[in-house]
Structure formats: C-alpha cells, structure tokens
Amino acid sequence: MSGPSAVSDPQHPARLLRALSSFREESRFCDAHLVLEGEEIPVQKNILAAASPYIRLKADVCPSLSVSLLPTACRVLL
What we know:
4 helices; alpha+beta; single chain
C-alpha cells in the first residue's frame, strides 16, 4: 500500500468564493443580520466570524448574534 494521495484543483478557491458570493447575493443560508445605519443586511455568521475576531467573539458569547455598526466601525472590525 502506498501513502495517502492528494487531489489538487487550483480553481477550487475561486469556485468556492463565487459560490459564497452567490449565496450572499441570493440571501441563502443567512443566519443573522448586520445592521448598518439602520439597514438590515442578511449575513452568514460563519463568514463574518472567519473575517473578524470581534464578530467571532460576539458569536461565541451570544449565538443569536445581533450587531449594529456605524460605517467607521466596519474598517476596524474587518
């Protein structure tokens, strides 16, 4: 028997990002809302948590995540 084999697809990261983007555009798999200047934006908590340690901490502490932000705060969080 030989060792484990690996399958590599250089296009996988791009396809994955396109799929995630289409989910966002279609509001599919959204499980939270981000409120920015009074506008509710449907979001996926796992994507926000991966991009922001602050959001990750908020989601760990409060699973029913609800975050209201001012536009200037977005640069700090992400």
